[in-house]
Amino acid sequence: MDNTRIIQELDFKAVRSSGAGGQNVNKVASKVVLSFNLSDSKALTAEEKELATTNLANRLTNDGILLLHCDEDRSQLRNKDIVIKRFLQLMEGALTVPKERKPTKIPKAAIKKRLKNKKNVSEKKQLRKPPEH
Question: Is the pTM of this model over 0.90?
Fold first, then answer.
């Protein structure tokens, strides 16, 4: 994954932010919406696109577009920086291949310990019963 090529493919849109802030919220478009078309990206290989599509399936639109937004700061520029950092972290996480799980054998000592414990519990319960005549 080449960060500079991916950042060039990002589309940004400035929108009026919601929430408290008085007249500043009504006048200034400080919220930044980032959109990235995953399927048409030229910065990612076919394998990377497939991996990202499966890992980010719940975050993509029906058209395969990833949308992120940020309205944490009053500055549009800072919001843009924050959303780019978020996007890069998200893509790094989506492109990491999980390690294969190696099935392990249960140690014989653990099996013996479990069976011994079961036997002790069983004997304890047997001793609680009244004696038979």
Answer: no
